[in-house]
Structure formats: structure tokens, C-alpha cells
Design goal:
The structure holds two protein chains of two kinds.
Chain A: H1 9-12, E1 18-22, E2 34-40, E3 43-50, H2 58-63, H3 67-70, H4 82-97, H5 103-131, H6 135-156, E4 165-166, E5 169-170, H7 178-201, H8 204-210, H9 218-224, H10 228-232, H11 240-243, H12 264-288, E6 310-318, E7 321-329, E8 335-341, H13 344-355, H14 364-371, H15 375-379
Antiparallel strand pairs in A: 1-2, 2-3, 4-5, 6-7, 7-8
Helix pairs in contact in A: 4-5, 5-6, 5-12, 5-14, 6-7, 7-12, 12-14
Chain B: H1 4-7, E1 40-42, H2 52-56, E2 62-66, E3 79-84, H3 93-97, E4 103-105, E5 120-121, H4 158-161, H5 174-182, H6 189-193, H7 200-208, H8 212-222, H9 226-232, H10 236-239, H11 252-262, H12 268-272, E6 282-286, H13 290-301, E7 305-309, H14 318-321, H15 330-342, E8 346-348, H16 359-365, E9 368-371, E10 375-378, E11 391-393, H17 394-402, E12 412-416, H18 420-431, E13 435-440, H19 451-459, E14 463-466, E15 468-475, E16 482-494, E17 497-513, E18 515-518, E19 522-524, H20 531-536, E20 539-540, E21 543-544, E22 557-559, H21 570-592
Helix pairs in contact in B: 5-7, 5-11, 7-8, 7-11, 8-11, 9-11, 13-21, 17-18
The chains are: A alpha+beta, B alpha/beta.
Chain lengths: 380, 593
Amino acid sequence: MFEINRLSEAELESGKYTKIWHGPQHPGITGNMSLELTLCGDDVVECKTHVGYLHRGFEKMMERRTFIQNFPIVCRIAVPEPTFNEYLYAAAVEELAGIEVPERAQWLRCLNLEMMRLASFLMWLGGASGSFGLRTVYQWTVTHRDYMLDLFEEMTGARIYHMYISPGGVRAPLPEGFTERAMSVMNGIEKLLFEVERVVLNNAVFKLRSQGLGVIDPGMVDDYGIVGPNARAAGFARDVRKDSPYLVYDQLDFETITHDKSDAYNRTVVRYQEMHQCISLIRQMLEQMPTEGSFHADLPNVLHWKIPAGQTYVKAECTRGEYGYFLVTDGSEYLRRVTIRGPSYTHAIAVMEKLVVGVNIADVAGLMVSLHTYPPEIER
Amino acid sequence: MKLKDLTSPFYVWQRAFEKPYTQAKPIQERIGAHAYRGFHINDIEKCVGCGTCEEICQNGAIDMVKIAEKASQKGDSGLVPRFDYGRCCWCALCVDICTTGSLGMSNEYTWASDDPDSFRFTPGVDETSWQDSEHGYRRHPDYNLLKLERPEMKVLDPDEGLKSFDEVVAGYDHQQAILEADRCIECEICVATCPANMDIPDYIRAVREQDFDEGLRILYKTNPFSATCGRICTHHCETDCTISTFGKPLAIRWLKRYIVDQIPAERFAEILQDEVVENGHHVSIIGAGPGGMSAAYYLRKKGYGVTVYEASASGGGMLRYGVPSYRLPDDQLDKDIDYIVSLGVEVKYNCKIGRDVEFQQLMDESDAIFIATGLNQPSSMRIEGEDHPRVLSGLAVLDDVASHRDPGVGRKIAVIGGGNVAMDAARVSRRLGADVTVLYRRRIVDMPADKEEIHEAQEEHVRFVLQAIPVLIEDADSEEQVTIQWGEAEMVAEEGKRPRPVLQEDRMHTETYDSIISAIGQAGDFSFLPQDISDQLNQHWGKFEVDERQRTTVGKIFIGGDIANNVADAISAIADGKNAAIGIDDFVGAETN
């Protein structure tokens, strides 16, 4: 199943093929990584992925910092989606330390995560349409993402690295008047999505280029460990939010969105529908959320916080699928080991290397974006 | 493919009629959100330089630095945080953990300079446009990383306590002690405040790690009266504990007590391993109170032969005869003293200098003398009739009770004074069954007694009559009683001084009591000193003048404890004893070479 037919040395020397580097700096790559493409004419016959441009050694770094000191670091692991990292780290630490998170904090966390999902999808949508030449849409979606960032700035104190979900709860309640402002931003985004539907999804150019591109065969899903919208587009109703609900997802009304064939177009459609779902979830939460009560549990003194020996794996549904943190503690003030498993690892390496074969060079960027990968999360 | 797919993209054109979303910077400025984590601010008036921000910063972006604008003083290290914006990640953990709430962040987020060094700055000291910003991130009042609450100490019910002389405070149990030790942030502000500079964060860590042997070793480095101080220390350290800005200060005293309580007296020698190597020199110490005995301990450890002369029948001084056993049980004091004596310190009890041994003899025999006789003479009220037989001194009452004699206070008594001796005399009399009224010339806030002593006295139904000035004491109808006349006082503000009580002669009261206990202060008795030596020593307001090593103007003579320091509490006397040991060692060393 993982067999990839590599060209022999002799074949490569035959003059029939061209080798080019796609990345590490390329607008069609969602971060710094390289594809070493072998072309025959305009078509890709072989691809080798190259990573290493973003290795920052987070997992090792985290072993040398106290439990509280780690929480401002983890947000940098997946740059466009810091919140999922913050949540997973906090959840794992809380589980190991036996800390009960107040209910209000759970709602605030959940709201924060869904807002993050929406903001992340908005940026992705810009990339997806831009990669197929629809640059105007990129300007629109990034504008509305900025309005989301304004909301984050109000809610958490920062636009990108929120550092809002800390072990024990969240750092602040919602500021005054936040609900109204958030609702108005949601309305704006809903209007934007209506336009996007007309301009992107019902666009002959986009359809012609994306339909049938990078088809993920249902048989590949389990073999490759494909998750999230990429798997859901292939008909797999898998969503951590539904399958093992965390935070307050079991109190919210939503259905897992699936499609019948996972190609670049349908993956866009699934994500497009999930954006509507995000808006609905955010509205539900803003209406149902408790406005009184504690939003942070009592922690032991964080300056010398020791957590009993243990290990745990926690997972959450990020925009790209199941995202997991595996933490091991040994009873000291430091983590013994942490392993972070992001969906981009398979999506951007194994899946990409397979799907890109036979694709026209002009569609490589579009294919990669349609898999929604984040190189920073691969390398950590 | 449908026809719609070809036409619908032209919807884009509709946008041509909309206003742009962008802002025309720099014509339009975009202000950061109200709680934005922008550049730091620091209120250096509030900042005590505890360094917790530096401790928690995971980037090493904060250095605590000395600045000209702020001096190091009691409760304030004089340091302030300097930020390196080449390292800072604006996570605001420093703001969250700030013990005084002095650190915050403004919502300012743009800063351009051609000087890279300027981005290493000290907020509150280096001038910035955002220092006074009202906006920006502050720790939310309901979110706290510090542990503010203290586990409640179990104490005897006040009415139960009155029935005996049993210890009132029960001490922490294991779980409470660990919880309390966990609250310490190890800022070390308390170390500088403690007169004996005890290594407080270190022994608190020992409690946290449940290594009580190590805890005891740390205690004895600076204080050989740990069982005692763990109970009755005036705990200056707790007053300056940085946690007290928002919460209850660490119960440092109770944690010290917890360590000592875990270790039976028999194990002290094995744990402390104090080995004495005789150096052939001899030091005489006058007074076996906390000052004298701690000097004896540290001198003995340095190899000196030590003889302590004590006028009373047991050691401990004021700790034994001034502090009632419900605050400090005798066996706890004995635990401390017995260990010191076990190192080979010779103590001559019932031996008063000037009566049993001449001071000159000590001068001749010893390489150095340490005088720590304490304040044991009651001060006079300077009113008519105070020599009435029913007027007792507070010290005498406490001494009688400590020696298991009946002081004969009667059923209805008045205590005059607002210090610890007055409180103790009042509470002791309550335990002897008397109805007690305290007369004090000022207000409760002016009382020199420990706050908790005043509080406990009130709980034990001691009545307080404040702003009452005694005027005259005279015979009552019965010989067993005494009458006191006192007048109400008004507090009159005086510039630069504390308010002064002024007698209101038109508001006089007369009351009859079984006895009156006078406890308005103590003085030292220096009659044992030969005149020529007394003349050479400098005195000021009834105290001897000494330097930081307790040296006097007479080379051989070192003085400490209540007769030298103005604080006049046990821990200061202990510190004096330790300092004198160092001073004497230097002096004898210099003399010998």
C-alpha cells in the first residue's frame, strides 16, 4: 500500500525528466517545507518531501520548563491554530494533576476553539481559492479573519498567540459587550460565505481545476491515518467532537458533515459547510454560556508545581482532524516526555507524495492546500 | 458544469462599490484592545522587588536590577525588573504572578528605535509614553496563581483555654503544613527582615519536601531557639511576606514549629552533628535568656569554653518567667536549652553577679564577657499611691505563675498598660479566675502588644478601657482592696509624632479592685557593673550602645538582648547572641595573634 515507484538513476539521467524544488518559500505551501518534484513535461512523476526548515525542538524544550512555563510555548507549535495546542496541553496537565476545570471555563474554552477553527478556515479558504488563481477571494477572507483576530484581541489580549487557555481554566472572562460584537462579526462572515459560494464553489475555473484533483480513495483513509475533513469528504463520519465529546460539545447541536468523494473540490465544500457549522456553534455558545462563576480552578503553587507520575493521551478535533498530545510525567516539576501528533504529519508527507503523482505542476499548490497542512506542526 | 458556474463569479464586481476595509495608517491609528498584552508598565512605588516575575519568565527576559531611584529597605529588595524585548514573548505570566500587582501591560504595541539597546528597558524607571496607560492587560481579580489563603490553625476554644494553662495553639497537622509550605514563592524578602536572617525559604522547602532533618539543620544555622521561636516569635518575617499584599502572609512561625515538633529532643544531637573542638579560650555570659544562650551555642560550636551565670533557678529568662505556658510550654523551652547545655555549656543557676560573684572576677578570668541580662525591673507609673501593697507588678505576677506560686491577684483586678506583659498578666489572671479590666492611655492601634495577643485577650473576655489615664491610687474601705482614680483622655494630634493622650480633668472615674497590676514597661538593672566600667559604657535611653557585632567601648565586653536593641523581642536577642559570638571570636582571635 505504501509502495512508491521511484525512478532509477538511469531514468533520471535520460533527459526526459526535469527536477524542480517547490518551496520552501512558496505561496502555495502553507509554511516552510519543500517538495522535490520530478516532472515529465508538466506532469509530476515523483515527489519527495523535505522538512527541517521549522524544527524548533518544542518537545525537548518542554522537558526543561515547568508546567506553567510550558503553556505560553505550545501555541507556537501550529502557528495559525495556537488555541488547539493550548487546550490540549492544559487538558493533559489537568488530567495528570487531577484538576477539575470550572464549567464556565469549559464554555469559554470551547468558544475559543470554535472561533479559532473559523479563523483558521478563513485563512485556508483564501489560500485554497488563491492557489487556483482566485486572488480576490483571498483579500476578502483574510479581512474577515482580521475581524476574528480583533475578537481574539478583546477576549484574550492577543491576536495570534492568545495564551488564553491555561492549565486550570482560562485567564479572563468575556469582556463587556463581546457577545454583540461577536454576533456582528458572525453575520459579516455569513455574508462573506454566501459570496464565496457564488464566486468559488460555483465557479467554472475552480470546478474544472479542483474536481477530480487529489482523490483520496476510501481505502487509503485508514492505511494512511487520514483524519478530519480529508477523511470526512471521503464519507467517513469521524469527528472527535462527536465520537468522544470533550468540553461542552455534547451540549451543542451539530452534525458531522461528510461527502461522497474526497477530491480537492469536495474537501473545499466540506470545509465550507463546517464554517457554517462553526458560526452556528459560536452563536449557540454565546447564547447558552453561563455568565457567572469561576473561570479558573485553584492550582497548586505554580512555581514549584509537581505532578504525580503518569501518562495520558488527549485529543481534540482541530481544523485538520484529530490532534493529540501525549504527556508523560515522573513526579517532578518537569515533564518527562511530550509527543505531539498533528494530522499534517501524514497529510503533508505520505499522502502528499502519493497524491501528487500525475498532477499538473500548476495544480500542485492547489492540491497541497486542499489537504490543509501546516508544516510547523509536522516538525514542532 | 452549469451555465451558472460561468455567470456567478461575476458577482465579484458588486464589491467594487463597497468601501475598502483597510485603514490609512499613520493618518488613522488603531488602538489596541482594552486588555491587550502590549508593552510593560511597572509601578515602582508598589514593586517590592520580590523577583517572582524573573523566576517565572520562561524566556529569561527579565533581570532584577538595582536602580538609583529606590533603596533597599525592610520589606523591599530595592530591585526592579528590567525587560529584554529581544526575548519577551508577551505571555504576561510575570503580570499574573506579580505579588504586589505593580506589573501590568499597556495596550501600546508599536515601538520603533534605531538603538537596539533601548529595547532592554526598565518599566517605571525608563521614560515611556505608555507608563501611565489605563488600558492594557492586568491580572483579572478572579484569576490568581498565588495561593492567598492560609490553612486555619486549630486553637483551643477561648472558654476552654481559660480553664487551664494548656497550650492554646495546637500546631499544624501534616497536610496543613505541606499545604502552607506550598504557598511560599521563595522571594527571600523575609530573610532580610528577620533579625536573625533565618533561611526561611530553605526551611519551608524542607517542610514541602518533608525532609525535617534537613529543616532542623537549616534552623540551627541561625537560631538555636527554634522550638521557642516556632511558638512565640514576633515574626517580623510575616509582616513583610510578599503574599500579604493580596492574601494572608505565610505562617512562617507555625512551619518552623512544625519542623521542630516532628523531631524528638533525643535526635537533635544525631541530626545536627555539632562537634566541639576546644580552642582553649573562655567566655563568660551573664544571663541565660535567649540572647545569652544563643551566644553560648555559637561560641561553643567555635570551641570556646562557656560559662553562663543566671540569677534565677532555670534558664530561658523572659521566655520562662515572662511568657506564660499556654503560649510557650516549659518542655518546649527546655528542648532548646537542654540541647545547648548538652554541648558542654556550663550554666550556674541562682548565681547573681555582684551578689554571688564579682564582675571583676569575670573580667579577670574570661577572654570576653557577653552581657544579656534583659529588662527585669518594672517601670514606675509615677503616680501617688503606687507603692500600695495591693499594687503588683506584671513581671512579678508572671514570675509567680511560672514558678507555680499563687500571685494572689484576687477576683476583680485592673491591669495598667498595653504591652505584651500587660496582656500576659491579664490573660494569666483570667486563668486564675479573676475578672480583668485593662486600662490603657491610648487606643488599641497604639498598643505595643502583638496583635494576636490583644485579639486572644479579647476573646478571653478581658475588658479593655481605652484612653484611660491613672491619676491616683488610694486605700479602699477594705484592706484587701485598692481604689484607683483615672481620667478619660482625648487623643491630640501632634505634627510628626503619634497622637498624644491628654487628660480630661472633668471626666474622672473611681473604681475599686482586689489588686492593680502595673505593667507599663521594664528597665534594666545594671547595679552589678562596677562604677568605672559603667562609666566607660555608652548608654542612650536606658540601652547600651553597641555595633553590629555587639561590641562596646570596652574591648572585652559585648552586650546584647533587650538591654541593647530597641526591638526587645526574643528573635532580636537571639540575633544579638549570634552576632556577639562572631564579634567575640574576631576579638579573641585578634587578641591572641
